Amino acid sequence: MGLFDFFKKDKENKEQQQALDAGLQKTKTNFFDQLSKAVVGKSTVDEAVLDDLETLLVHADVGIDTTVKVINRIEQRVARDKYVNTTELDRILREEIADLLDRNAGTTGSRAILDRPDTPGHPFVIMVVGVNGVGKTTTIGKLAHRFHSAGKKVVLGAADTFRAAAVDQLIVWGQRVGVPVISHGMNTDPASVAYDAVRKGVELGADVVIIDTAGRLHNKVNLMNELSKIKRVMQKVIPDAPQEVLLVLDGSTGQNAFLQAKEFTRATEVTALAITKLDGTAKGGVVIGISDQFSIPVRYIGVGEKMTDLQLFDRHTFVNSLFKK
Fold first, then answer.
1. Is 37 exposed, middle or buried (0-12, 13-18, 19+ CB in 10 A)?
2. Which residue, of 7, 88, 209, 315, has the fewest CB within 10 Å?
3. What residues form the annotated binding site?
4. Which positions are annotated as binding GTP (predicted)?
5. Which run of H or E residues covers position 301?
């Protein structure tokens, strides 16, 4: 790496850190303001402090089960250490959250595409699922930008054919990023679109093919059948496709994101998560709870509107930013 590349990379890292800090600001402000009020005038972490902390974690949409797990672990540390000062609570909480995220850390999958050689043999296929309105198509566009900017060949498949806006939106993203989009228009067979997109990816020697899918949950049987069919036809071209099933969730919806994760993990084998719109909510704790409860790695987080604001999720960077004063 030359000196120019080093400074360019350093600048990009600083910009990403600033975007992450800004994106988590509402969550940080809400949580730590309340935490400060809960411990004011107290010197030790007693039962009352833990009760207040439990309430704060639930309100941050960490989720009941994960919150209980965190509180129990802190209680064990208090019992073991005999005396824990309230000034140490930030550090202990940071360590426990980081440990939970460590257990479900994913280092492979689509995040490894940037490290793959230019000619791996066949494209890495990502099937993207999620309900309408969570930012699914926008996430695909930002992913395409990330890979394309790194010099990777990308093909998009507009297989959300039940919503005209989704097809048109993906085509616009393709033009904006400069990558081909395979589309048969609205009310066409989604599996056929996915098949053609994967085949085109092979023909072009693409590094990655990203397939958009319909975001409907009103009939789970139909959803399951549709996603299974899309998988089967893609496997006629690439036997192990898709190598990643990425579920996109809207972080600002809090507990509703948990429900969506539950439904989609029942309908198909979800292998990674992208959690969007964290910059517009004080419920950033949903990242912690969903990662813990579903044992699925969070691959990407959305912290702003810019194309570069879809970031690779790094658990240590996330926790450090969350606890940064």
1. exposed
2. 7
3. 130-137, 212-216, 276-279
4. 130-137, 212-216, 276-279
5. strand 298-302
Q: Distance (Å, rounded) from C-alpha 289 to C-alpha 146? A: 27
pLDDT digits (tens, 9 = 90+) for 48-98: 888 988 988 888 888 899 999 999 998 888 888 766 777 788 888 888 888
143-160 residue pLDDT tens: 999 999 989 999 999 999
Residues in the chain: 325
Residue 295 CA to residue 65 CA, distance in Å, equals: 13
- Count other Cβ atoms within 10 Å, centred on residue 77: 15
Q: Enumerate residues 6+ apart whose C-beta is below 8 A from 314.
A: none
Which residue from 123, 122, 159, 121 is spatially nearest to 140, judged by alpha carbons?
A: 159
* Residue in 242, 283, 289 with CA at minimum distance from that of residue 261: 289
CA distance 277 to 251: 6
Query: Which residues fall in the annotated binding site for GTP?
Result: 130-137, 212-216, 276-279
Percentage of residues in the chain with pLDDT exceeding 90? 36
Structure tokens at 87: 């000034």
Q: What is the mean pLDDT of each run of 10 residues along the chain (325 residues)?
A: 45 76 80 74 81 87 90 88 74 86 68 58 92 90 94 95 88 97 93 97 95 75 85 95 94 86 87 90 84 89 88 87 77
181 bridge partner residues? 156
Q: Are 137 and 144 in contact (CB under 8 A)?
A: no
Tell if the pTM clears 0.85, that is, is over it: yes
Residue type, 175: Q
